[in-house]
Design a protein that fits this description.
Elements lengths: L1 H14 L20 H8 L5 H8 L23 E3 L2 E4 L1 H27 L2 H16 L12 H21 L7 H20 L12 H16 L3 H17 L16 H21 L14 H13 L28 H8 L13 E2 L4 E2 H5 L4 H4 L5
Antiparallel strand pairs: 1-2, 3-4
Helix pairs in contact: 1-9, 4-5, 4-6, 5-7, 6-7, 6-8, 7-8, 8-9, 8-10, 9-10, 10-11
């Protein structure tokens, strides 16, 4: 029902649009989450210091070798040694390294292509992903038995689909190879979205579900698949309906000292779903479910960062905010998009360094930061 109410709300908004025809469809598979050509032109005159720094820091896709796909049938242990928080498990990080590296390499290509327009960067992204596509990576797992592989596959599909969306329209690309990669990402996103550990697992409506929604939305756009795109957009309604009266995601508040960490991590894919939807002509940032909006969750996180004690109603564990929720943290990369869209001044202290997350196709600062400081000043009320 929640999913259907969102679709109805978006459909209604769509019918009021003069250029709209069929509600909730992929109108432009090349639209990405950013207007690539317009942004490239704007970056040429960038004056914002952190944006200039982000431009200076771009690396070529060819600078690092792409990793081989993970071995088929490989399992990965939990991120934490005990439960869903606490001491990290180094074995998990080691086995997850191929996922992190392929995200990083393709994000680098997308970033440098955004800045320079060099076709070689776009071609590098596709060339690097072909072995993964032809090896059927991100497809050989079962969510019930291979939980962390499922999570890593989901994040990787989201990341790679966002990166491919940036370079998709490059005319010099080998179209056959590009479409081969896109077909694989579609299949991997479809699998990730439809896998399940059961209704009582917690993964049906927590941050993992939101990330599956982003994977579906991004892959749906680049493959121009309306059904997958619609599935991805529909997760937004479930997410917003989960927000409680304080603005918290209750399931993320169960993560002990990492409650605020996972509040931020849950917001991240939702912002990107909204950005992708916006580029297809659907503004869902302001949509309300159960009398809540995404802004409520963002406001709760901001208040919690200023005063972590507000989380004490959910957990008695002191919150881990350093370095997770400090300026420059990848966990807050989505703030660039949020601030650009809302003109909120709440995040000024966060927006002092370039923000980047390979799960979001690299440098959010490159994609969304104001071109000059005057543009960073919100309009007068």
């Amino acid at each position: 029902m929640r999913h259907n109410r969102l679709l109805l709300a978006v459909a209604l908004a769509s019918t009021l649009s003069a250029h709209s025809q069929t509600p909730l469809r992929v109108r432009d598979p090349n639209a990405s989450f950013v207007d690539v050509s317009a942004r490239r032109k704007a970056l040429a005159s960038a004056e914002t210091p952190r944006l200039r720094e982000a431009i200076h820091n771009v690396k070529s896709c060819t600078a690092s070798p792409v990793p081989a796909p993970p071995p088929r049938g490989q399992d990965i242990p939990s991120r934490y040694k005990s439960g869903s928080h606490g001491e990290l498990n180094p074995e998990e990080h080691t086995l997850s390294e191929p996922y992190y590296r392929v995200q990083s390499v393709t994000a680098a290509g997308a970033n440098k292509y955004l800045v320079t327009g060099d076709p070689a960067e776009a071609s590098c992204v596709i060339r690097d992903l072909l072995p993964w596509a032809r090896g059927h990576a991100l497809l050989d797992y079962n969510a019930k038995d291979d939980m962390v592989v499922w999570f890593q596959s989901t994040w990787t599909v989201a990341s790679l689909s966002l990166a491919v969306s940036v370079i998709r329209a490059e005319p010099a690309l080998n179209q056959s190879e590009r479409d081969e990669v896109i077909a694989w990402l579609y299949e991997a996103a479809h699998k990730a979205f439809n896998e399940s550990r059961g209704a009582n697992s917690g993964t049906t409506n927590n941050n993992h579900f939101f990330w599956r929604g982003l994977a579906a939305t991004a892959a749906g756009v680049i493959s121009q698949d309306d059904a997958l795109f619609k599935d991805g957009i529909g997760t937004y309604a479930t997410a917003i309906s989960e927000i409680d009266s304080q603005g918290a995601f209750p399931l993320e508040m169960q993560r002990h000292e990492l409650a605020l960490h996972y509040q931020a991590f849950a917001i991240e894919p939702l912002v990107m779903i909204a950005e992708l939807a916006r580029r297809q002509g659907y503004d869902i940032y302001g949509l309300s479910e159960e009398h809540h909006r995404l802004s409520d969750a963002v406001d709760f996180l901001h208040r919690g960062m200023l005063d972590p004690a507000i989380v004490s109603r959910y957990t008695k564990d002191p919150q881990k905010v350093d370095p997770d929720l400090q300026p420059g943290s990848s966990l807050l990369a989505w703030v660039e998009f949020w601030s650009a869209r809302t003109h909120s001044t709440d995040w000024t202290a966060t927006l002092t360094k370039p923000l980047s997350d390979s799960r979001l196709a690299g440098s959010a600062t490159l994609y969304a930061a104001p071109i000059d400081e005057r543009a960073a000043t919100p309009p007068a009320p």
